[in-house]
Amino acid sequence: MKKPRFAVLGAGNGGLAMAAHLVLKGYETTLFNRSQPRLNPIIARGGIEVSGQVQGFAPISVATTNPQEAIEGADVLMVVVPANGHAFIAQKVAPYLKDGQIILLNPGRTCGAMEFRNVLKEEGCKADVIVAEAQTFIYASRAQNPGQVHIFRIKNSIPVAALPNTDTVAALQVIRQVFPEFVKGENALKTSLDNIGSVFHPTLTILNAARIENEKGEFQYYIEGNSPTASRILEAVDRERIEVARALKVEAISAVEWLEVAYDATGSNLYEAMQNNPGYYGINAPPNLQTRYLSEDVPMSLVPIASLGEKFGVEVPTIRALIHLASVLHQTDYWALGRTVERLGIQDLSVDQLHDLVEYGGFW
Questions:
Q1: Catalytic residue (one of 128, 201, 352, 356)
Q2: How many domains are contained in the chain?
Q3: Structural domain range at position 50
Q4: What is the pLDDT of residues 147-179, one digit of tens each?
Q5: One of 128, 297, 324, 330 is an active-site residue; which one?
Q6: pTM for this structure?
Q7: 355 part of the active site
């Protein structure tokens, strides 16, 4: 099998980590970002400096705001942008996609592959491509300075599922050449509803809103930003997410189970498991409340979970409270912006029809 070529779409924390790691693994990689200023330091230095679990200088030969240039000749498109940018990326690449290319959302959050497929269809894309989503992001990483990124930890096991599921094996045959951490997920409903970021990010950010503003995020987010009492809210969100999944005939992994799979972190409860995760130490809170932990995770994670719950008769009061509080904090109607069942085009489907769609494709 030939060595795959990669395009990383997004030059934020995650995109820098992904692009640098791919280059240091020996794979030809281009980098796309929608704005030029973020690329300028990389172009000036000739690449990305990475530290932490991965170390070295990764030369980047193509760093561009031109989507056609970025994906030309690429076998795999690694989409590494906040989930509220997935539709934008789909619109940008739709005219230039070629048969056989693989698109992996890192991660899809909730229903990311479904939204991406819908946008490609709306844009009239006829290319026969594979669209897949990862359950979570492979790295715990932070950009440190322009053109520099630190990787705190590479997660052990990342489930991936394509939409439709019949494409999953073909996608992984290529991607696992490079990332053995990616494993076959059950299907895109499972990867979407196992979205643990939906549990951690909005809850901890809202509970620490005053501290984030007052301390400019200078505290350890998952460690000092949590407590045994705060974890009760995390656990309530987790239970509601699992109940929605169960209504859709999906056995979702709990946050405690996920910490063990992803990080080898264990504990008798969620608070202990988070405190026992070495991958969380050193990760500070967002510097302000204009953070993707709200602007991404609320409309692209919590809203679709709540919308699915509403459709299939599951009460999610804690999740709905967080959506409301985030909307108040940002003075934005996240329900109106989010991935509701209506916006995803699945409002009229039964559970069985939804599974048929995920497994075999249906209207795609």
A1: 201
A2: 2
A3: 6-187
A4: 999 999 999 999 999 999 999 999 999 999 999
A5: 297
A6: 0.91
A7: no
